[in-house]
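pasting for the record
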Amino acid sequence: RRPVRWPSSTQLVNRLVALETLLRGLLFLISIVFVASWALARDTLLIGDSLTCGPFGAQIVKSLTRSPTESVTLYCATGSSPNNWIKGRFPRRSNDPPSYFTCRTCTGGLGCTNWFTKGNPDEGDLEPCSDPTTGTGHDLANILTALTARNKKKFDRVVVALGINKGPKDTLAGDEYSDMAKIIKGKVANVDSCIWIGPPERDETKPVFDEAEFNAKISQEFKRNAGKYAIDGNEQEKKAFFEALKRDAKTKAIERIEKDRRENVEYKASLGAFYDSLKGSIDGRCTLVDSRKLMPEPKPADTAPDGVHRQPSSARKWAARIMEEIKKLEALGEAQDDRSRIKPGQAPEGPKSPGNP
């Protein structure tokens, strides 16, 4: 057996120094990664209507939370327009809670893609919000104040997707659009970017009256509320009564559908002027993304029966293109910021070669 040769004291010291250097290097790398992750962390507020409550919003959230440092707080209210957000009064149906809008916050990698199980705000995972404003009001200014206090920081980015619920007489974007952009800039002072996603085209061929669908619905109505429609008389008289009710309901259904289709036609006719006024209303506060340029005029298969909402596949495609545009805008903004930091007379730095540090 060979005798064990223990390292000399000098060798031990050298090895300890090398180990210490290695550990310091590892700690330095870990700190760099941590600081970089912290610097890239971004909190986004996403505000919208029923389109944002559905598959379009789900895809936007998914795209904004690909990194573990990205966090999104979503607020959406079905049927809403900027006026609702400014005043804090939202459209609701008789069976909705008093403040019907939905919200949720998630951070990348923590279930952000599973909010919308069926692409329908009434059937998905989103539920009416608990009141974040502690009774001060559901208007946007109070919502922003409450969320900022809760998060202990201001949002880095705000994305707004509103405009498709403009009325048939609202050919131009009113003061409420400018007021909403002003509130966002005032309440979220250090926002890197405010992006306003303009409304997409509607399908002016819809909605259409579906005889089979109507007959099925009216039969369900009669069965569900048999007591309400009960009358005295023989079978022939009862049948005549139900047929009269059915004719009346059919007339009203057709009138409502024709009205909605006229609104879609008027919406299309005024959309160009609306966009021009919207850009002027939010200019200097939010950057407008034009959905018309990213999603061409929809085909019948692209939209729901109302001609307004997108089918899930079309909605996801629209959202993906919107996110590509947002990334381009933000990259351009960062490049402009870099150029603005160059001192007068100073040439911008070119790429560094190995021999030219």
